[in-house]
Input
Amino acid sequence: MLIPCFACESRFRPDEFFLACHDYHRGMDLVAWTCPRCGNRDDLRVLPDALGFGYPRRGRFDVQDRYKVPGLRRHRQDLRLDISLNQDVWHVHTRLHRLTAGRSPARA
Output
């Protein structure tokens, strides 16, 4: 099975594709993916047996297209998404944003 990049039409084995996933946004349930070949960044949602490609809109993620990946599963953790296919598992962590040291929110 090969999974495509919709920007450059390159195709990737699942291991190569899922290793390029980064920055899981648990609130919107989306994963950022950057193509290893062309550098295009896409947002996607891991669904049972499919990948959902789309766009964040009005505080939610709208899936526009689905790409079937038979056997694909997901398990949401507190700060990561576990993606599994057959015997393989990939972990996509949430990027934690930190306040800059010495800075505090503005006070009214």
